[in-house]
């Protein structure tokens, strides 16, 4: 994966909009919250994607 970076923060409130080609949710980083907050994580990931972006994936 080229151009990767890490930014500390809360995945329920991402600062990016239409920025990335794909969003990767690594290993077991999804599912720590209740249903409502887990849905918020997915909504935020979707907002961070470019219009032609790929949905969140866990490559493991």
Strand order of the largest sheet: 1-2
The run of helices and strands is: EHE
Residues in β-strands, percent: 15-25%
Secondary structure tally, helices: 1
The residue ranges in which pLDDT falls below 50 over 5 or more consecutive positions are none
Which whole number gives the mean pLDDT? 84
The class by helix and strand makeup works out as alpha+beta
Question: What is the helical fraction, as a range of percent?
Answer: 10-25%
Number of strand segments: 2
The CA-CA distance between the termini, in Å, is 14 Å
Quaternary structure of the protein: single chain
Structure overview:
- The protein has 60 residues and is α+β, with helices and mostly antiparallel strands.
- It has a domain at 20-57.
- The protein has one helix and two strands.
- It has one helix at residues 35-48; strands at 20-24, 49-57.
- It has a two-stranded parallel sheet.
- The longest helix is centred in the C-terminal third of the chain and has 14 residues, at 35-48.
- The protein is globular and about 30 Å long.
- The protein starts with 19 loop residues before the first strand and ends with a strand.
- The model has no long low-confidence stretch (mean pLDDT 84).
């Amino acid at each position: 994966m080229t151009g990767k970076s890490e930014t500390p923060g809360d995945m329920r409130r991402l600062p990016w909009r239409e920025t990335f080609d794909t969003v990767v949710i690594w290993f077991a980083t999804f599912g720590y919250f209740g249903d409502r907050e887990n849905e918020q994580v997915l909504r935020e990931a979707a907002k961070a994607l470019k219009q032609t972006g790929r949905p969140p994936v866990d490559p493991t």
